[in-house]
Amino acid sequence: GAVVSQHPSRVICKSGTSVKIECRSLDFQATTMFWYRQFPKKSLMLMATSNEGSKATYEQGVEKDKFLINHASLTLSTLTVTSAHPEDSSFYICSALQRETQYFGPGTRLLVL
Amino acid sequence: GEDVEQSLFLSVREGDSSVINCTYTDSSSTYLYWYKQEPGAGLQLLTYIFSNMDMKQDQRLTVLLNKKDKHLSLRIADTQTGDSAIYFCAEGSGYSSASKIIFGSGTRLSIRP
Questions:
Q1: Which of A19, A51, A75, B38 gives the lowest tally of CB atoms within 10 Å of its CB?
Q2: Do B42 and A42 touch (CB under 8 A)?
């Protein structure tokens, strides 16, 4: 149990376009999901906390207009990288909270050309 | 602010024990976690320990917590090639739906024959 999926697993896009990444809890409902960004050989940096039915809470330094988060159902949160630039290239990982434990998705590798 | 530190690399011989160390700064942490990340994959929760515990053992894994020194360690007995991965130490406040986790930079464990 407690499986979290992400789609797509990797995506390449042109600079200036928008990319949507989905995070799904497959066998449980998650009121809260988290979005992280991982740079090469670096730790995970929390970007935002996504709450079902309400606005996401963004960490300091994360542009909410650039990284749009929607948590419209108890099993799905989406992260949209708007007007992507090469510096947005990274590994994006989501997690879903179940009983005080975060279960992580496999990650999405984004490459912006 | 909160900070979690780990050494970046560890190399051990197959069959030996691996000990990965971590220090943290937030004395109010409720949970301390160890996560495993295999290449190109998301994070897998290996084990966690409550801040009021000194030790937790789970099969080949032993977690030791020295709360006074804010030091956490993970010992993997009889290390196997399948244990090759990056191990992240993390601290969290838990007990609420906003269970923010702060990750260390990860320790890359490599196994030599």
A1: B38
A2: no
Cα dihedral B57, A107, A24, B50, rounded to 10, equals 20
Kindly list the distances between the CA atom of residue A24 and the CA atoms of A41, A57, A77, A79, in Å, as whole numbers in the listed order. 26, 19, 7, 12
Higher pLDDT, B12 or A38: B12
In tens digits, chain A (113 residues) has pLDDT values of 688 999 999 999 999 999 999 999 999 999 999 999 987 767 888 999 998 888 899 999 999 999 999 998 999 999 999 999 999 999 999 999 888 778 899 999 999 99
Nearest to A82 by CA among A13, A22, A15, A18: A18
Q: What would the two tokens of residue A69 be?
A: 């988060």
Specify burial of residue A14 (Cβ count, 10 A radius: 0-12, 13-18, 19+): exposed
Q: Which of B44, B95, B104 is closest, CB to CB, to A100?
A: B95
Preceding omega of A106 cis (within 30 degrees of 0): no
Is there a contact between A102 and B101 if contact means CB atoms under 8 Å apart?
A: yes
